[in-house]
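input
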Amino acid sequence: MSAATTATASADIVSNVWKLVTEVGAQVRQGDVLAVLESMKMELPVHAPATGTVAEVLVAEGQIVQEGDPLVVIATADEGPAPV
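output
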C-alpha cells in the first residue's frame, strides 16, 4: 500500500533564481539539479531531495528568494516501512 507524500527543495540563502532546470510533471531522481541560484556571483545548484514527479514549481527565473523559501515540490511514493 502506498500513499503520496511530498518533498520540497528550498533556498539555502538569499539569492536570485538564475535558471530553472525542471518543470511540472518531470520525473526526477534524488540529487538531480532542479534549479540554479546565484548569490554573490556564485552559482548554487538546488538538488532534488527525493525521487518522484515535480508537482509544483513555486518560483520563476529572475525571482529573488529568501533563505528557506520553497522552490520546487516533488510528489513521492511512500511505500511505508520495509517488510521485516
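quick obs: The beta strands are 3-10, 15-20, 27-28, 33-39, 42-47, 52-57, 64-65, 70-78.
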